[in-house]
Amino acid sequence: MPIVPYDQREGFIWLNGQLVPWGDARVHVLTHGLHYASAVFEGMRAYDGQIFKLTEHNQRLHESAKILDFEIPYSIAELDKAAREVLRANKLSDAYVRPIAWRGSEQMGVAAQNTKTNVAIAAWNWDSYFDPAARAKGLRLKIADYRRPDPRTAPVESKATGLYMICTIEKHKAEREGYNDALMLDWRGQVAEATGANIFFVQNGVLHTPLPDCFLDGITRRTVIGLAKQRGLKVIERAILPEELSGFSECFITGTAAEVTPVAEIGQYTFTIGDITRTLMDDFTALVHPAKAKVAAEG
Ligand code: PMP
Q1: Closest Cα to atom 3, ligand 1: which residue?
Q2: 104 touches ligand 1 (CB under 6 Å)
Q3: Which H or E run contains 208?
Q4: Left (φ > 0), alpha (ψ -120 to 50) or beta: where does 232 sit?
């Protein structure tokens, strides 16, 4: 079935303080955010009508903008309320929600002191970020050529659009070669993350995950660490070198869109979808989507 382009869908988008018909949420071609990547965004998911960690996501949006030297002209509480309105207006209960803030077209050139900050929030159905069959078997990741940048090179703690340029290039390369995604190393050559999700490994019943010192410390990552600890599992955050991949038995990635998705292969290294991965996938489902977990358990 052909995918309906994202600018041609039905419904409402919240744009600068009000809900507008989907097709009217447009920007001009001379927009600073488009030319100079002065834009930050969020991705959140609603389950059973509730947006998971809504306020944390909107806090991060505010922080991301501040790091790029602009202010979002709506409070976190206003953004929370707006996101809920978007869900209601589009009659969505399980959905992906995308807030974005960008500098407008009042000024062109690198300097942008006089631009207005625009904010939009859209929502749509996005059941599985990865192909469900690939997700069931475990993803295949290719090791990327580009690396996550040194914090002295880029504003790595901001969820800024510009940081995704290398992710799209790497994801395309990976997909062209039959992989589902790419694993990015960091500027030092340590394992960092996938192109839109954090990564975890299992070794002798212990979880290992890279320290998020040059990439996003995902909200899902922190949630999964909490769930693992509740299960009495040990979680070690440390520098992980690619040569160590042969010593891990399980691997999974975490993110708002990806949720908890098992990984079966990274280049030459293979992993099984083991008990720890399955337990954390189930615990995550139970946490975000209690109704679904109950049906599965009764099932
Ligand atoms: N890293 C990158 C590059 C991402 O795009 C995301 C998704 N926002 C994550 C990690 C995971 O973050 P979160 O769990 O907060 O969605």
Answers
A1: 196
A2: no
A3: strand 206-210
A4: left
Q: Shortest CA distance to 40 belongs to which of 12, 22, 63, 17?
A: 63
List, in sequence order, every residue forming a beta bridge with 46; answer none if it has no partner: 51, 95
Rounded to an integer, what distance in angstroms lies between the CA atom of residue 198 and that of residue 209? 8
Structure tokens at 10: 């039905």
CATH architecture assignment, domain 132-290: Alpha-Beta Barrel (3.20)
Name the residue ranges covered by the structural domains of the chain: 6-124, 132-290
Ligand 1 neighbour 196 (Cβ under 6 A): yes
> Would the pTM of this model clear 0.90, i.e. be above it?
yes
Task: Name the CA dihedral angle for 122, 174, 64, 289, rounded to a multiple of 10 degrees.
Answer: 50
- Tens of pLDDT along 20-52? 999 999 999 999 999 999 999 999 999 999 999
Q: Which atom of ligand 1 is nearest to the CA of 53?
A: 15
How do residues 124-165 score in pLDDT, each as one tens digit? 999 889 999 999 999 999 999 999 999 999 999 999 999 999
